[in-house]
Structure formats: structure tokens, C-alpha cells
Predict the 3D structure of the following.
Amino acid sequence: MKTYTYENSTALFKRAVKVIPCGVYGHFSPAPYVPVDAYPFFSDRARGARFWDVDGNEFIDYMCAYGPMVLGYKHPEVDAAFLKQHVESDANSVASPRMVELAELLVDMIPTADWAFFARNGADVTNMAVMVARSATGRKKIIAIKGGYHGTTPWMQAPGHHGILEEDLQHVIRIPWNDIKALETVIAEHGPDIAGFIATPYHHPVFADNELPADGYWQKVVELLHKNGSLVIVDDVRTGFRLHLGGSCERYGFKPDLIAFSKAIANGYALSALVGVESLRVDAAKVFHTGSFWFCAGSFAAAMACLKELQRLDGANLMQALGKRLTEGIVSLAANHGYTMKVSGELSMPYMRITDDGNVMLQQAWCSECTKRGAFFTSHHNWFLSTAHTEEDIKHTLDICDEAFKALKNSDGAQP
Amino acid sequence: MKTYTYENSTALFKRAVKVIPCGVYGHFSPAPYVPVDAYPFFSDRARGARFWDVDGNEFIDYMCAYGPMVLGYKHPEVDAAFLKQHVESDANSVASPRMVELAELLVDMIPTADWAFFARNGADVTNMAVMVARSATGRKKIIAIKGGYHGTTPWMQAPGHHGILEEDLQHVIRIPWNDIKALETVIAEHGPDIAGFIATPYHHPVFADNELPADGYWQKVVELLHKNGSLVIVDDVRTGFRLHLGGSCERYGFKPDLIAFSKAIANGYALSALVGVESLRVDAAKVFHTGSFWFCAGSFAAAMACLKELQRLDGANLMQALGKRLTEGIVSLAANHGYTMKVSGELSMPYMRITDDGNVMLQQAWCSECTKRGAFFTSHHNWFLSTAHTEEDIKHTLDICDEAFKALKNSDGAQP
């Protein structure tokens, strides 16, 4: 199996570092997150479950644009819906009928949703959720999970990050995931000051195994928070529509007050949505939150097409089944080669890690070998399945993984 | 001249309020900002300088999507550049060559820019600017202008807004525009804590006359801040590319450290950019700031086409000339009817106000009469010209304005 080289990407990255801090930044930044020697820095073509880098290397993509791609790149129905709208009106000086239609669809599809509010970034709506919670309760403090991610707004970053003040974090109380005892302690201590609790449906940190909610965890969270007069916010930005079409809370059987969606909502078109219960409608109307592009109509049309297609395909279950096949295959191959591969999180967006070195270096080396052979994984972040991945893709990916394990064993210092 | 009615918009708004807080929110919210009885709530078609509402009413649009539309809706070259990119790759798992090319173009075109960083909302990059300033100086306080707007992130909102904490505002010091004395006082008091100063190139509040910088104001601001080891941030989100292609600071002859762009940068496609000087490159790389859709390639391609077209047309000067013709015409018509119309701000994005009632109610009534006849103005916010407005459009608009003044005089309680 031939391994890839990256001459054009390397040359373009040299140009990039001259005019862009880091060259490529944020979650697309190669270091220290992904295997740099195998990283296809730039791509100019994507179709279905694949992208091609600027060197012409072809990749089966298990990062799916870090979540937005859920039906496959350039999905015909979604793109057609976008373009039909786009040719008539996208940016405009007044709102689009598509905004109303999409809100109606979400209210119909999502049991928690009595209303919907739209923005562009996931962080726009996690911020909106916190503002609504503070407005509705007249309280300041937000409970969040240690290692939980809700965007890069200062209040949600980790202490010590550059440009972040300790004051940005002063009303955010972090507790461990799945720890009801810790939650009870915080409520006992800060009860009258707690506006709300924010967490992802399950815990999907980077550089660490993902954790599903323990039996009854969310139900207890809702009970304790509501008893305290506080709100429950689900950040479904990364998980949304890969676990359940009605919001990931439906998979785990609980009802929050607010849910933030983005990423997969429109198969790659920039859009985010906050939905909430009836009792918060007035506060959601009182809070002032807006952006220059939040009313662009094309993304609303794309979202409706995307959600309908996910419904038609039973997308969440299809992706779970594909993820099961992929992860079971990799675990089995790893064992054949003497490695232990651990799978965590939901199978439609699994986190995988070779456990034999106790960190992610072995995993990073293996991802590098996979990437160089055409299966694009990152070592530190959960992967994503899409409905465009086929049984044939999984089979080919497993062949690549097999070769990658062989290469890993043959490379220096990478013995399990 | 027939006046418009709004049956379809009214019916759709009734559906909207059931599923969206406020029905239409943010800066698109009709009340209390715009004449509700004449407000075309929804549009599904826009071309050039015009949009059509869902009742088929045609409007010459002087709000330009509140700034993003600068070359006319559905501009052939910009849309072609977007679509050419979009068909190959938009959302993707790695970066696009278009991002590098656009950064190169901005570094070439904007004297202040030694590097560029891209996001989606204007507020993404005003936030990034503040984080970079805090990272680079190790200081906390930001000086801003009373009534200045830099997005709806909590730190930039006004005290008392719903969901905003006093702690959000604790490191923002507000001073009046054009007031060097106030700036000196703040520096004397808080000097060692001041990370930076943020302001728009000229002061363009809502519900108030806009104010250009006094002679030497910006030069003195830069001098005082730099002497204090603090940074100067220009929020060019609303003004960018309507005053000068090299950043609005070029029109006023000064050099800031950071400039935030958005709105008109890609003629309606969602994009924002922070550019900065060489000495801040490392801090811009250290700050962690990212978003799910920040690497989508279509907007980068659209931005390059938009900026090149603005350059070809000498867009800023063209819009200034069109704005001069429009505002002079309206002032003259107002006088003919016994009203005093005051123009403030730059003529490519003028703020206009009938001064005879000392508030904006008369202005609101007049805007309503204009809107009902096909010229879309808001009463409380600066307007925007685009390169798609023609001499013929202005002439037709002035006819509408003439009729609107007549109607204003004939209506109850609206005598000057």
C-alpha cells in the first residue's frame, strides 16, 4: 500500500505562515493535535465521505469537518435546497420566510423546543443560553463540567489560556462529569446564585476517553437543578442529530430547558440554533443578541433539507451501526497486532485510543500511518461518522488500519 | 403614488411569533426601531440595490442588509466566485487554499495588515482583538466609547441589558467620543492596567447623530495609547471598505495595531477578519479562538472577488458620491416642505434625522412614508449606499422622499 507525500500542502503552508498567525489556527491547527508529518494541510475538493488534498491524495474522512458534514460533502438535496434559496435571496435587509419554516420544523421535531432562535456559531447559542438563564433567574453562576467545551468565548476557556482573565471565569463553577455528589455540594454552597447547569449530552473531552451519562445521571441533574430554581442547558453542538433527531436528550430520556445546536444542523452550512421551553420564551426575547449574518436565508433552507434527509435515512441509527462496524473492526485488528484499542463515547462519533502507552503518542503515530494511507483520523479528538460512509468504505478503512498497525509495529519505539 | 400594504408579511409574522421569540429578533426586530406599520417583515427576493417583500412590494434598499451588501445583491462576479469554490469544497476537514490567498490579498491591500485571521461574525474578531491585546500586554482594561457598538458579547453590551452581569463590564471603561481630555484622565488613573482602546473609525451610534473624528483625534489616541504601552483597535466592521479599501484608518491618516473587518468584506457571505501588525503575530497565534464554520472556503473566494471589484470600481468614492447626491437632495426637499434634515457621519453610510421634533418620532413617521412608497430606510440607524445604487435610483428615491414629506405634512401631529 503506497503512502502519501505532501509537497503542495507543505509549500502552501509555507505561504500561509507568512500571512496567518500559526499558518492554520484553531481546531484546524496541525500541532500538537494531529500527526504533522502525515497532515494534509489543505484541500480543495470534497465529495461524499471523501476529501482530496492539494497533492491529489484521497482520504476517507472520519472528521467530517469536525462534525458539520453529516450526510456527505456536496449532498445533492441539501445543496439544491441551498442554491434554490441562494439564487433568490441570502443576505437581505429583512428576514426570510425560511427562518420561520425552519423554526416550525424544529418545534415540531424536538420535544424540548417550544421556540427556536438562530445564529451562526455554536458559541453564539451557548452564550445566548447563558444570557437567557441569567435573565430568567436573576442569578449569576453557571455550573459546567471539568474539560467540557462550549466554544472559545472567554467565560468558557480554561484558566491560563492566553488573553483570558480570571474574572472571565469567576462565575463558572466546574465539577467532574457524572458526579452527582459534587453537584449536590455546589448547590448546597451556591444554591441561590446558580442560574444554570451546562453540559454536553455525554462527556466528550479531547485527549481523554469519552464518557456516557451514568444511569439516571441526567434525570437527577434535572431534578436537582429545577428544585433549586435553576435551568438545565444541553450543549448539543457536537452531538446534535448524530444521536437522536429530537435532541440527544431524547436518547437519554430527560428534558432540559434549553438546547444549543449547530455543526450538523445544515450539513456544513454555517448555522446554529437555540431551542427552549415555553417558560423561557419571554427571556429569550428580552436578551439582545444578534449578528450581521444571522438572517442569511440559504442556511435555513439547507438545514430543512438536511434534517428531512436525516429523518428519511434514520441517520442517527445508521451512523451508530457504521460506527459499530468500524470500531469493532479496529479493536479486533489492534488485538491481532498485539495492541489494545479502547473505544469510548457514542459509536456515531467514537473516541478511540491505543491504551498501551498510557498517553496518545502511540495513537498519534498510528493515526499518522492511517492518514498516510488514506483514512483521515485525528489522535486526540472524537471521530465522526456520516450517512455517506458505506460498508465498502469501512472495509477499505479496515484494510488501511491493518497496514497501519503493521507499520506501527515496524517503526522504532512503537512496540506495544 | 400608490402606497404599499403588507398582508403576506403580517400573516407570516403571526406564524413567526409562535415559534421564534419576538418573531423577528436582534437588529432585524421591527420594534422599536423601525416604522412597524410600513415594515416589510419578510423578503424572498433581492437583486442589485433592490429587494421585494413577500407581498411583492419593491424596495430600493438603503440598509444593504445592514452593511454586508456593498456591490448589490446577487452580484454576478462575487456569486460566480463563491459558486466555483462551493461546488468543489466549502466545509471540509482541513483548510482551503482560498484562506491563504485571501490573507495574502488583505496583507497586500491594507497597510496595517502584516497578518490576517478569519472568523464568521464581526464580534468574533472584536473579541479576538481584545484577547490579543490582553495577551500581548498582560493587562486587563479596555477603553471604549460611550454608545460604541462592537457586537452583543456581554462585555460589550450596556449595563442593565437582560442577561448581562456588572462583572462582564468591570474591565471596560467608557469615555465620550472625540474627548482627548477624558482619555488622558483614564490613562492617568488606570495606565498600567490598560490593555487597549477600541473604537469605530468614526462614531456611529444608533438613535443619535453620527460624529466624525476631530482633526488630530486619532493621531493623538495612537500617541497616548502607544506611550502607555497599550494597543489601538479599530472596529471597522460596519465602516470597512465603504470609506477606504486599505481600512478606514487610511481615510483619517493613522495606523492602529489591530483592525476588525466583517459585513461588506464578501458582499453578504458570512465572514470576518482581524488583521494586525507584525509585533502582535505571536500573540494572535497564542490566543485560542475557533469556530465550526470558520474555515468554510466559499466565503474566502467571495471576499477576494468582492474586494477586487470594489478596487476596480473605486467603490468607496463612488458610494460617497452617491451618498452626497442622495443626502443633498433630501435636505433640499425637506427645506422645501419646511423641515430641517440633518446629515451626519460619512456620506457612503449617512445618518439622517429630521431635527424639528428633537427626537426620532418625526423621522420615524417620514421613514414610514418612504418605505410605504418603495424606499427602505430605518429611522434610528445609519443608512448604507452600495455601488449598485444608480443615479436613476437616487432620482426615483428623491421623488419618493418628496411624496413622503407631503404625506408627513398632511398627517396629524406631524407638523414641523
